[in-house]
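Workshop exercise sheet. Pairs work together: one partner reads the sequence aloud, the other fills in the structure field after running the prediction. Swap roles for the next sheet.
Pair: D.N. / O.F.
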Amino acid sequence: PGEPAHDAVLACFGDAVRAPDGTLDRAALARLVFGAAGVAALRDLEAIVHPAVRSRILAAIAAAEQKGMAAVVVEAIKLVEGGLAELCDEVWLVDCDAAAQRARLAGRGMAADDAERRIAAQAGLWRQVGALPGVLRLDTTGDPAETEAAVASAYEAALRRS
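Structure field:
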């Protein structure tokens, strides 16, 4: 709320995604962009959100560089599509098998059909990033402690390389 992209999303999608308090109902927006309107609605949403997110990420990277930070981590589901991958020395694809993904989404209360639409929308991520230089694939199918250890190890290795 209060950000131009918030208002632009509400203007684009209207009352269907407006919560009673006037803010964005993210669950309603997700149902819309991952539902029947799918591809066109998602494209409209990304046209609003990507530029806003990109400018904030670029500002954060510049601030980190100015402070001499050892690394900047950019977490973005649409890293390639948003034109951010070329800014990165490394791209890490955090992935898990479809069964684990379904279970995690169900654990968050998501209906099975909604989960399937989300999984389908993310299909092909490895094809998108796999050809980029410096790509690391992290499988998070196991328990969270294993994932945390793998991420910590990969991060330490990245710092040693830089």
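Discussion prompt: The helical segments are 4-13, 26-33, 38-66, 98-107, 112-121, 125-129, 144-161. What would you look at next?
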